[in-house]
Every structure is written in structure tokens, then in C-alpha cells.
Amino acid sequence: MAESRLAKLAAHLTGRGSKAGFRVAVLGASGGIGQPLSLLLKKTSLVRELHLYDVKGTKGVMADLSHINTLTTVRSFEGNAELGACLKGCDLVVIPAGVPRKPGMTRDDLFKINASIVASLAAGVADSCPEAFVAIISNPVNSTVPIAAEVLKRKGCYNPARLFGVTSLDVVRANTFVGEASGTSPERMNVPVIGGHSGNTILPLLSQTTPRNSLPEDKVRALTNRIQNAGTEVVEAKAGTGSATLSMAAAAHRFAESCLRAMNGESGVVECAYVENKEPLSQGLPFFALPVRLNKSGVSGFAPLAALSPYEAQLFDSMKGALAGNIKKGQEFGRSFNL
């Protein structure tokens, strides 16, 4: 009853001219990323309804979040039988579902577990909300996004403008580390990060930061290495208890909120994301992270970048093969997955 009254109040306020709200689903809402991400989305004014899905545990998360005094209504869904109801009519679907990386695990290890999870959820999106923006967090993103693309293609509803790999954490980390090193507030720093979302496929463009920095070459190399391996830094620091969850949730919320702002009609929204594109900088790689311009329809174009520095060009050349292999692996799995 309380949820119903809250929904009616939200609809009443929206009808009186406040900004439209959206229906957002978090698939994997009971996990280490899903719970803090759901908390942040509950406090986001553009979220009208928040749907929580997982194999178990969402009822408790919903009960907890529903006590927070915002107009966002929260509903819980559990198990395959309720996936369709969770996704019906959703505008944005955020997918952190899957297992986290543990010490000693490679992203190939993650692939064996998370590939089927992402494929199944992508099929659910195709069946219940084929026009939704889909933001994939589940690692390895270099492969899981191509998996989702192939599943959506087979379902006849693939729109490359609305499928994103969330690489915002690489940007958040780069902003933090470069800001600290250059004596600039991390909140003011903006570092474009292109390529992929694992190890040396992560390419931070420290030559193109805003504000500009004057870091020496040895510092640039050290920071680049730290940004590329920051995930391992967290995994090792947590000593077997988890991976980057809080920072990932904050970065995912940043990306989700940018999508919602664009969907709500705001212009000039730009976020780095791993998307299908044919930009010259991608050099034939079908999926590649770039600064993406967002509007109501999804990707509307790409923000311009300057030429890479010699060091960045060297890094790009050295990672192209690995990223191409990750993409191919995901495509092949998506094409063969039993729908």
C-alpha cells in the first residue's frame, strides 16, 4: 500500500510539470556492485521506478531501499520466471550480474562463468524491453558486450546506439590518479580513456586531459600502468573478499545518470563508453571505447580527440591484437548460445 501511494504521488508530481522519470532495472541487484548502485539510483531524481533483479536476495534489498525518503518506487524480482516482469517497459537496463574477479583469476576465467549469464539477460531484454538503453558492467566487458550484441541481433532487435559497455570506472580512476599527481581537484579533471576495459586494452589519453597537465614522461608511464592495473590493485587489497564494488557502483551510477539526462532531453552529454562504431581511431575494431555523445536515441556521435602521443600510439598498437581477440571470442559465443 505504501508503495502504491508513493507511486501515485510521483505520478501526480510528474503530471504537474516536474521532469519525467524513467523505469530502470538493475540485473544483479543483490551483489557487491548491485546493492550500492541501487542505493545511488534510489536517490536519483530521474528514476521513477527501480526494478531489482537477481537469482535471490532482492526482497531484502528492496525492503531496505524502500525506507529511503525519495519518490522513486522500488520493486523486487527473483529468478528466471520473474525476469520478464522485471524488464517489461524499462527505459534503462544496467547489468552488473555475474561473479567478481578473485585473486589469481584472469578475465578469461570470468568469461567462462559470466558469458552465459549476460547472454541470458540480453535475451530477456530483447523479449521485454527491446528499445531500452542497455549498460553492461559484467566482466569481461571486452567480450560481454559483443555477446549481448549477437544475442540481440539473433532476436531481431539490435540497436548499436543503445548498447554500452560501462568503462566509466577507468575514467574515474584516471581522473583521481592524474588529479592527485598534478595537484588538480579530481572533480575538475577529465581524462579520456579509450580502447577496452581490461589490462593493457585500457588506454588513458594523458596527453589530452582537461585541464591540461605538464607531467613528465616517467610519471605519465607510471600513471598509465596504475590506471590499467587498478582493478588488480583492489582485488589484492581485498585479499580474496571481493573486487572493485563501491568505486564501480559510483562509476556505473555516473554513466546511468548521464544516460537518463540524455533521455530526458539534456544536450551536450558525453561519456566514455565501449560501443560498436566505425570511427577511424578504432582502426577496424568493431567495438571500442571512445567519448560518446548521448541523446534520447542513444549514441548520436563521438566527441573529437586529438592525435595520440607517440607513447599512446605505441600502447594502442600493442593492445589491438588482444582486444580483437576478446571481441571475436564474445561474438562467437553469442552466435552459438542456445536461446
TrEMBL record:
A biological process from GO: tricarboxylic acid cycle
GO cellular component terms attached to this protein's record: chloroplast
Annotated ranges, domain Lactate/malate dehydrogenase C-terminal: 167-333
Domain Lactate/malate dehydrogenase N-terminal as annotated: residue spans: 23-165
Residues where NAD(+) binds: 28-34, 54, 114, 137-139, 248
EC numbers on record: 1.1.1.37
Keyword annotations from UniProtKB, A to Z: NAD, Oxidoreductase, Tricarboxylic acid cycle
Cross-referenced InterPro entries: L-lactate/malate_DH, Lactate/malate_DH_C, Lactate/malate_DH_N, Lactate_DH/Glyco_Ohase_4_C, Malate_DH_type1, NAD(P)-bd_dom_sf
Entry keyword annotation includes Ligase: no
Active site residues according to the UniProt entry: 197
GO MF annotation terms: L-malate dehydrogenase (NAD+) activity
Protein name per the record: malate dehydrogenase
Family: Belongs to the LDH/MDH superfamily. MDH type 1 family.
Pfam families, A to Z: Ldh_1_C, Ldh_1_N
UniProt organism field: Chloropicon roscoffensis
The reaction(s) this protein catalyses: (S)-malate + NAD(+) = oxaloacetate + NADH + H(+)
Superkingdom of the source species: Eukaryota
Subunit structure: Homodimer.
Binding site for substrate: 101, 107, 139, 173
Keyword set includes NAD: yes
